[in-house]
Amino acid sequence: MHSSTQQFVRAMDAKDIKHSDIEVTDSGMEKVTVIYTGDSIPSIRMIFFFNKDCEDVAIRVFDIVKLPENKIDGFFKVVNEANRRFRFAKFVLDTNDNTVQAEMEFTFAVRGSVVAQTALVYLAIFLLTLVSTLIKVGRGSAVSLLHSENCGEKPPKGNLFVALLGAVLLGIAYFMAVSIQEPMKALALFFIAVILVILATYLLFIAGSVALCRVLQRNRNYYYQPRHFVSVSSMAYRMKRNGAGLASICILATMVLVMLSSSACLYFGAEDSLKATYPHEFALEVWLENSADMPKLQEALTKAGAAYGVNVWEKGTVEPGSGNTWSAAFDTGLSQEQQLALSRAIDEALGDTDITWNYFRSYRAEAADDFYGTYGSLFFIGIVLSVLFICAAVLIIYYKQLCEGYEDQPRFAIMQKVGMTAADIRRSVNSQLLTVFFLPLAGAALHMAFAFPMIRRMLLLFELHNTGLFIATALVSFAVLAVVYTLVYKATSNAYYRIVKGSV
């Protein structure tokens, strides 16, 4: 017997819930059948399937609702809508006996094999890095290693093929983002587009940054100026490593914009999403087995709403021609707490009757806590991850520029001896850091602009149709990132200037 099955059976026994003996399926899973009965609902048969690894459980529920003949055609739409909204369950209408069934599968696993594979991959990466380092150290002499800092980098060569490949990949990703119209298709292709954008960003920054420096150096009027000569020549000799660093910062900034704007949009648009999913505060449809029980239903519903000043019965109508179906969809104007109390009163009133009935219910107040809880959690996670990514980007660019400041110190010392003023040094530092700092930010803004249509369509899956809200959250997110970036730029510029001036 599986341990998960044992725990489930013990829990059923503790609650005094009747269940069948444990059976073993052909696939090796164990199943337990539970027959649930209530005072106001018919018996419902539920079968629980347990995996031997205690990782998966599947639940199949039979005879949730038995429909009258005149409701079969219209209920197909209800089943399809339920399958669209509830992504962890699949609802099926059995036309043999006119009953609704449901199937749910849950997987919660920490597989040892997956953990071992991940550990082996990272171990292989570290071993390859170690071997590569040992080979480089073994090929060089001690003297050359001691003087490696004075050797400098060779001027990098631009690679047209790499640049074109990056442009093609970026074009494909952008085309996917702006051309996809279906929300589910956008969700399926989102991660493919993300991978293409990451690859394209690295290729374009590595190859494009070199080309940019070459263009600036060919412009003699621009290049042969005190504030440009040192900064451009310094960047040109470091673009091989700077390109990858700038690409990493651009990707991190893009992730910040996407996560922060999307999660904020979900949270602040939760009310709109809730109202789109639940157009009315209350939606009820009751099917009576015997139409003669309709007066009892009227009495129960009238009594349920009396304490809240709502005549629930008058909010609905009896379906013409059948006489055994009552339905209603209405708003009350009550507070959320009062709506919750009214919903409980309706359920209790219907449960206390001796009539045989089935019903469909939808209460907006009950779903509100789930909406705000889920979207609030996503917003919190988005903020935490955004802070982490911003810190990572800031640390990368800040300490990288400080290290380069110490490398550039001898160059600026020479330029001071030949007449470069303190103002020229300041302008040269600002020129270099402006390019290094704000080029990734511009790339992130471009990525976000093209990703906007795809993200907006994915938000439609959450019934969020407020495009203006998404635009506002995206702009605010970019403004926050730009402010943080500017502050870091100012701090880095001052520190860099002090280093090259020799004051630190």
Determine the number of helices (DSSP H or I, runs of at least 4 residues). Answer: 16
Q: Give the SSE string.
A: HEEEEHEEHHHHHHHHEHHEEHEHHH
For the biggest sheet, the summary is: 6 strands, antiparallel
Portion in helices: 55-70%
| Regions with little confidence, pLDDT below 50 for 5+ residues | none
Rounded Rg: 33 Å
Structure class: alpha+beta
How much of the sequence is in beta strands?
5-15%
Distance between the termini: 71 Å
For this entry, give a set of tags.
3 domains, Yope Regulator, Chain: A, alpha+beta, 10 strands, 4-stranded antiparallel sheet, 504 residues, elongated, single chain
Task: State the gist of this model.
The chain has 504 residues and is α+β, with helices and mostly antiparallel strands. It is built from 16 helices and 10 strands.
Describe it for me?
The mean pLDDT is 81. Helix 9 runs antiparallel to helix 14, helix 14 packs antiparallel against helix 15 and helix 15 packs antiparallel against helix 16. The protein contains 16 helices and ten strands. A six-stranded antiparallel β-sheet has the order 1-2-3-4-6-5. By secondary structure, it is α+β, with helices and mostly antiparallel strands. The protein has three domains: 105 residues, Yope Regulator, Chain: A; 246 residues, no CATH class; 66 residues, no CATH class.
